Amino acid sequence: MDKFKSAYFKSNNLDSIRWVMADNLKYWPVSKQLTEHQRLFMKSKWFMPYLKFMFKLTGKPSIPILDIPITTRCTLKCRNCSHNMPYYKSHAPNLTFEQFKKDIDKLLASCDIIYNLSFIGGETLLNKDLPSMIDYCERRKQIFHITFSTNTTITPPHELLDTLKKSKKTITRISDYSCNSELGGKIDVAGWKKTLDENHIPYFISEAEAWHCMPEIRRDDARPRHRVEEEFRKCYCFRKIQNLYNGRLLPCPNAKYFANIHPDYKFAELENIDIHAKSKKDLTKALIEFYSLPYYRVCSFCHSGIDTWSNNLPIAEQIKD
Ligand code: SF4
Ligand code: SF4
Description:
10 strands; TIM Barrel; alpha/beta; 321 residues; 8-stranded mixed beta sheet; single chain
């Protein structure tokens, strides 16, 4: 086994997959994709050896969670948005179905499984191609599970409901901000629940008693390497949430935001992989290396504040114009 494959085994990637599946299994009683036997297997001690065996067999890494930002626009302006959406300097056009298909086809040719593909925004319903993208993922066997998030400010269109009714592996994630009275007239969590229930569409409600602060990312890399590695290991994204955005694979949503506010910053090749510039084989190798790095260079600018973490922020507090 070459040194990168050996580093991959030592990295946390396989453990992240196990974590993702355990988390997803909480919701799968309402989803239709897995049999009871498969569920039991994934909870068992045999799942990890199975993941190792599959990596040795295919030589390809798997992806725990792949976030696909399909729009950077949102109908709300949450001060502590986990993806920094209100703070983007400029908005690129929404991701088109054609670009999405091209990107996902390329990635799937070079990896084994994507365990959870998550469409995120901004507000995902602002992208009219969302139903086509879900439908395409439904037909790709290498994609195990699909989620998309909504803040319920937009009524679900018929085309989306029809796609969700047919899907066996999509779960709608409703971000419930109803405890914030200032959003009263804008969001409709009850309406969404009623519509999804009537159509027998699986969903789960994501609600929190409070929000926590997000790592601040700024161009200052004064911390020693061991400190950056330590913060990366404690980071909420640690080997779990990668971003695929317009043909580029980035370590996390914060790195994507950093690229937006610092367009002149030159990312290291392995933390911003141009997937179309590589052959299938080279992309597989790059993915293995990507998951084996002790940290990403961009993490040097990211102050996750592990010592001063604030967990008590108001939910969906809006920025006033
Ligand atoms: S609803 Fe709020 S938290 Fe969600 S993407 Fe929009 S601004 Fe961010
Ligand atoms: S830049 Fe690094 S430390 Fe910061 S959120 Fe992303 S992966 Fe985590």
